[in-house]
Design a protein that fits this description.
This protein is an alpha+beta fold and 358 residues long. It has helices spanning 24-40, 95-112, 132-148, 200-210, 222-225, 231-239, 253-264, 289-294, 348-356, and strands at residues 55-58, 65-68, 74-83, 116-126, 152-160, 166-175, 191-195, 245-248, 267-271, 279-281, 284-286, 301-305, 314-315, 318-327, 332-335, 341-343. It binds magnesium ion. Magnesium ion binds next to helix 2 and strand 8.
Length: 358
């Protein structure tokens, strides 16, 4: 499932559900085509852009859109849906967790550009059966994360939903002019790094789906229930001029790496045993490699750095791990412990859906 830019599709993932007519990747590509041809068309004179209006530097195809305002920093814009039954379930996730996860998705996209989040807008539709107590607790979770990153809630919309809670956020951020870290800057021989550990969020989801235990203790699975976007690390990396390309791991390493490779017209080699896999407390274990490779919603940063630059082993207490290298050959290969290679397909959420529905 492609996580493409501020334009990101929220369809069937591991929670449920119905199919879109096209795959997410194809649908985004189609919309990008429409947007390009609309932009190239004849402009009615009355709608011609005013002098001094912001220009679109980067549109569909990255974690955020980048807008240039005259004389100032570049503006980052990202939007994300959080839909009941798709991204969360009220019987699985406490309302504070839903609120935090809702905003974390957008903040993580700002982190992936090396930016600083500034304001958020929230549009929330709630079904009649949902209590005000639930909504208040949702807002508590949302605003707690906003406060932790100095983000102001600046507006939004509310409505009644026919079924299910629907939340849509817009997050605005800023980055010094021309300095946004894009997905498209990776070069052959660059090293591939990831922050933290992978698969922890998907492991929690797997336990929830298997319903054993019926409920998970959110405190034991913080990366799933209360993800903290890597804003400080993204900014640090950008200021140190280390990353040539960057993305957040929202859909799973294999899928997110494929976005960098596509946008940069390169391939990659990943060393299986170097992929940092999350430890979970109950059952106490390190998650399987498959979860590390394909599990989504970890909101870590995946980035590439020229081979001659030094990358710290940890930043702000978070381990940074070198997991592979960019190649000229446009395939993504997984190198196993014994040295054998296999093609790594961007499996992401699809993988889990098909597995768990068997
Ligand atoms: Mg993203």
């Amino acid at each position: 499932v492609a996580n493409s830019c501020h334009f990101r599709f929220s369809h069937a993932n591991a929670y449920d559900i119905s199919e879109l007519p096209l795959s997410e990747r194809d649908l985004i590509e189609r919309f990008a085509g429409f947007a390009r041809s609309a932009g190239a068309g004849r402009r009615p004179r009355k709608l011609s852009p005013q002098i001094g209006s912001p220009q679109l530097v980067r549109g569909i195809g990255d974690d955020c859109a980048v807008l240039r305002s005259p004389g100032g920093d570049d503006l980052l814009v990202t939007t994300d849906f959080s839909l009941e039954g798709v991204h969360f379930r009220r019987e699985w996730h406490p309302p504070e967790s839903v609120g935090q996860r809702c905003l974390a998705r957008g903040l993580s996209d700002i982190a992936a550009m090396g930016g600083k989040p500034v304001t958020a807008f929230l549009s929330l539709a709630v079904p009649p059966a949902c209590s005000q107590f639930w909504v208040d607790r949702f807002m508590r979770g949302f605003l707690r994360l906003a406060g932790a990153f100095g983000v102001r809630l600046a507006g939004g919309d509310t409505a009644q939903s026919p079924a299910g809670v629907l939340a849509d956020i817009i997050v605005l951020g800023s980055v010094p002019r021309g300095k946004a870290v894009l997905r498209s800057g990776a070069h052959p021989r660059d090293r591939i790094y990831v922050t933290g550990a992978l698969g922890g969020s998907a492991a929690a989801l797997q336990l929830l789906r298997e319903a054993r235990p019926k409920k998970l203790d959110p405190r034991k699975f913080p990366r799933h229930f209360f993800p903290e976007p890597r804003i400080g690390i993204g900014e640090f990396l950008r200021k140190e001029k280390l990353p040539s390309a960057m993305i957040d791991t929202s859909d799973g390493l294999s899928t997110d790496l494929s976005h960098i490779c596509e946008q940069s017209s390169v391939g990659a080699k990943l060393w299986a045993e170097r992929v940092p896999r999350a430890r979970i407390p109950a059952p106490r274990k390190v998650v399987d490699l498959q979860l590390g490779l394909h599990g989504g919603e970890d909101y870590e940063l995946l980035f590439t750095v020229p081979a001659d630059l030094h990358v710290p082993r940890s930043i702000a207490g978070v381990p940074i791990t070198c997991i592979g290298a960019i190649t000229r050959n446009r395939k993504i290969l997984l190198v196993n412990k014994n040295g054998s290679c296999e093609t790594l397909k961007p499996a992401g959420w699809e993988h889990f859906r098909s597995n768990s529905d068997e």
